[in-house]
Hints:
CATH superfamily: Outer membrane protein transport protein (OMPP1/FadL/TodX)
Number of helices: 3
Strand content: over 45%
Amino acid sequence: MWRKVVLAFMVSVAALAQEVPPGVDAASFARIGIGGWALSLGGAYVALAEGPTAGYWNPAGLANLSLFSMEGMYTNWLSAGIHYQHVGLAGYPPLGEPRPQLRLGEVPITFALNWLSVTVPDIPWIEEGGEFSTFTAWSNLFILSAGWPLREEPKLQMGVSLKIYHDRILEGRSLGIGLDAGILWETTVRGQVLRVGLTTTDLGSTTIRWYGTTGNPVNYVPWLVRAGVALLLWENRVVLALLGERGVERPRFERIRVGAGLQFDWVSLGVGWNQPLFDEPGQWTAGLRLHPWPWAALEYAYLPGPLGDSHWLSFRFTF
């Protein structure tokens, strides 16, 4: 049964690749990434996805979550007064034991809800009468995700995410609905953990329609396919991750992401590299995760850039 599910997933990706609409690449904020630890590893996180952020990186990773988890993140993007924030929830709250859980037959399903928002305040604007003023632009992405196991040994999981894009600029409003899907496979090789992940985001190129503006334009979010592999060595003390990313019939989205981390009892250190496969420079990243208690973690990531540096701070509570 699980073979048919995975085959159907792969065939649907290949079939839809034949009809990608033209248009403007929209929602660039949604491709930056979330989670301090994931960004520390350069975004090479498709094969490592877990917790609420799995709904963004690879919803199949939600099937590993047995508790309830809350996560939040903030950064002043590029140190330019661009406010980027994220809040995520995943799993089932402790409302009695065993915890309530939705099942499809005998298969347990784990859900997650994520919200990403970018706010740009004080944008200069000259009104029709020549009067100078400012306005604020908002961009939002809501992600409802579900993940479930397909097989226990070796472990195989699958997940999907429903995405809602919404922007607000002056009188203009936008709305778009997209779909992500992912699979995650995990096995043990000579006592070391090997994980392989595959995702397709904004399947078929998500359409974003504008209302209340001149011409009511239509934009498209690029359809991306990501394939990643990760090794967890020496009882998960060492993390090595590699990710390849490609835009379906969209140039200039091909890139390689590499990440490496050291995980100790209460602190983890990570570095990464994000390299576009066209005429743009790569970007290195670094960060750490403090997890002195099983139920709490604090994460920091540093992303330098020619337009300005970004300092990401995120937290997670699990109970």
